[in-house]
Amino acid sequence: MSDQNRLSVFKTYKLYVGGKFPRSESGRVYEVTDSKGQWLANAPKSSRKDARDAVVAARKAFGGWSGATAYNRGQVLYRVAEMLEGRKDQFVREVAASEGLSKSKAAAVVDAAIDRWVWYAGWTDKIGQIAGGANPVAGPFFNLSTPEPTGVVAVLAPRKSSFLGLVSVIAPVIATGNTAVVIASADAPLPALSLGEVLATSDVPGGVVNILSGVTAELAAPLAAHQDVNAIDLTGADTALAKELEIAAADNLKRVLRPQPVDADNASDSAGWSASPGTHRLTAFLETKTVWHPTGALGAAGSSY
After folding, report:
1. What whole-number distance in Å separates Cα of residue 197 and Cα of residue 220?
2. Which phi and psi (to 5°) does residue 39 adopt?
3. Of 292, 290, 281, 251, nearest in space to 148 by CA
4. Residue 265 banded pLDDT, cuts 50, 70, 90
5. How far is CA 78 from its chain centroid?
6. How far is the CA of 172 from the CAs of 19, 23, 102, 121, 125, in angstroms?
7. What is the spatial distance between Cα 71 and Cα 57, in angstroms, rounded to a whole number?
């Protein structure tokens, strides 16, 4: 059949919640445009109910994901990088349209995002060695501190860096055993929604990452106040919204990662998100458990370990 006689199949973007692809409970959508104002797609406009459903899914997945070995989590994150490598062309197109980049610059961004998954995959079984250890104490005791995941983390994705920044805030959260509810950039949600399709085929258990699109403030408010959300990353919030959310988060003593300068209006992608990420995002959503254990006495002389 000639291409001239064929109707194009437009992609329907959906949310990613609990390993499935629902439409918004509200039935609402909004238009997503490129940097020149041209229509790209209709994205789901998530509701507060969608946000609550995502928290339920994240909590349900937390036990299995946090209980998996760190080595296994690393394998899963590396699998995400593998799957992204195979769909690179799609993400180059979406990033170029979303961020107004040339094809070559968008390709560099996508390559960096794939490499970032590999970076965090390598850290899953090593972060415990730098964030924990044996503590010297006076007395016949072993005193050991070990990092443990905080729980369900709400993540406000960067507003400007729709893919590299997105990966940079999701990967460290799940690498350390947390589960995530992610609010995609309102202006450029398409790479985030497509990432859900990759996660669904990358051995990431359903509910470990949940991706919502819509109005950031509308979705962030119920997440910041939600009693079953343990932490919140405010990267994608402006100053006024971040202050409101931090006040709401204090009600159940959530861990809060304040907005970073890297996503400020005057920050370019090359100057910010492409820099070496370090380990601060890995440790931002970890709790430290300290265990005391008596060494016991050996022999009549009372010597000990």
Report:
1. 23
2. -65, 135
3. 290
4. very low
5. 15
6. 19, 27, 28, 9, 12
7. 23
Among residues 299, 30, 280, 284, the alpha carbon closest in space to that of 180 is found at 284
Q: Give the pTM.
A: 0.90
Q: Could you say which DSSP state residue 5 is in?
A: G
Residues whose CB is less than 8 angstroms from the CB of residue 303 and which lie 6 or more positions away in sequence, other chains included: 297
Tokens of 99: 């961020």
d(CA 250, CA 256) in angstroms, rounded, equals 9
**From the CB of residue 26, how many other CB atoms can be counted at a distance below 10 Å?**
14
Please provide the average confidence, as pLDDT, over all residues in the chain: 91
Burial of residue 41 (number of CB atoms within 10 Å: 0-12, 13-18, 19+) = middle
Distance, in Å, from the CA atom of 19 to the CA atom of 154, rounded to the nearest integer, reads 17
Integer Cα distance of 52 and 49 in angstroms: 5
Confidence of residue 267 (pLDDT cuts 50, 70, 90): very low
Mean pLDDT over 50-61 rounds to 98
Q: Can you list the alpha helix ranges (DSSP code H) found in the chain?
A: 48-67, 70-86, 88-99, 103-123, 127-131, 164-175, 190-200, 216-225, 239-249, 280-284
Q: Cα-flanking dihedrals φ and ψ of residue 18, to 5°? A: 65, 30
What secondary structure does DSSP assign to 146-199, as a single string? EEEE--EEEEE--SS-TTHHHHHHHHHHHHTT-EEEEE--SSS-HHHHHHHHHH
Residues 6+ apart with CB under 8 A from 53: 17, 18, 25
- Give the burial string for 190-219 (b: 16+ CB within 10 Å, else e): bbbbbbbbbbbebebbbbbbbbbbbebbeb
